Amino acid sequence: MQLFALSLLALAVAERQVEEANYDDGHVRLATFNATGLALLKQGVQLPMVKPTRSFLQEEANESIVVNVPAAWKYRLKIVQKLGEGGFGEVFKAKAACATTDAYVALKHIMRTDSTSMREVEALRKMNGVSDYCIASTGAPDKVVDQRGLWLMTPFMNRGDLHTIVGECRVDYNCNRGWHYKWNKIGTSQAWIWALMYQAMKGVQALHSHGMVHMDLKLDNVMVNCQLVRGSKRCYAAVIDLGLVCTKTDCSWGGTPGYMAPEVWLNDVGRPASDVFSLGVMLYRVTYTQLPPFRGDQNGQRTRAYNAHTDRNIPSRESRTPIDDLIVAMLETDPRRRIKLSDAMNQLKNIIRATTHDKPVLDMLRKSPAQLGAETPMPSCLFDARDFGGLDLEDKPFAREYCVDKPSKAIGMLRCGLCIGCNQCCKCRVIRNKEKVKEHFRMSICK
């Protein structure tokens, strides 16, 4: 028995050593922690700091997936691939079975239905029609709760996330050489990567303009979509995963060590400046071949002691270029002295313009995804809410906030499902993926 216990201890130590070694490997995905997890880390408790390395995007799309969509979507969607998983639940790629052409959405399955999950739903709905560069819910209904948990429908971004794109450069010897990545060695350009970062900043700016802070910005949480236009790929980026989104007055402690701002480690949360620091880490990751020195920080000490001016991965003051100066300004440890997001965006835009004359890249700075031709159209059948089959929509008074016209009483049987003793069924039009669609919900009085 003692030998067995010693063997388990040796295995745990070995796994921990492997994980610590992986901190210096830019391929691994860092884990997100809530308040409980961060408190344990600060107390010195050893927790897994990286996510499983399995990449679902690299697997065959026709792998057998036996997951049924919720009843409200059963005639419209079919799950074809798992895109990822974590402590929150899973993300799937689903085909629009109701469409005449191939079209896909992403389904996020959250196994819990607590206030944090509902906060994400609210944030996704608030971002409908606000910005192309911040993900929003789509479909009608865009959210379903069943016995398995909460399901959210969002657009599917077909190019994967920035973490995957950076990984493609890291595994290429010619791209991953010298001080900066040589993106041209894998058929793209540094300016293109920076343009994606600029678009991500626009998405974060949209969140901030609506009083929200993301709190978990990282390469994993920026997705890219591309379409072929006259033989040329046109792409755009969007910020995703609003699970930790909060406001200045209602914000929980959480984030991803290695991307978290120094003040967040001290539970000083809800500052837009904290998002700027995380964006600075991301800009660092897409620019320099070396990883930040606070990578793998388990208790915040290295992040709080960090000084970008003395970072050996960043050129010295006399040798810096404008992009180096911008990264230093975004990684200022004092949030009061950190560069403002709007100023960072203007500087990055000027850097890109001075770096390239490539029209498709410059168009990414001034044209919308629709104007670029980079956006994937959503099938209209996903906004048809008439196939609930008696599914009860429950009382949803919060839906009234998102009405763009006056709520009125719904006419017809089972518009809100079968429910005895519930409030009456009401209807109004809401914005779903830039479209005005009919939404049904229950209220005591439809007004």
Give an account of the 3D structure:
There is one protein chain. With 447 residues, this protein is α+β, with helices and mostly antiparallel strands. Among the domains are: 160-372, Transferase(Phosphotransferase) domain 1 (Transferase(Phosphotransferase), domain 1, Orthogonal Bundle), CATH 1.10.510; 385-447, no CATH class. The protein contains 12 helices and 11 strands. It has helices at 2-22, 35-42, 115-126, 162-170, 190-209, 262-265, 272-287, 301-305, 322-330, 341-355, 359-366, 369-372, and strands spanning 77-85, 89-96, 104-110, 143-146, 149-155, 160-161, 222-229, 232-239, 408-409, 424-432, 435-443. 40% of the residues are buried. Residues 1-22 and 55-62 have low confidence and may be disordered.
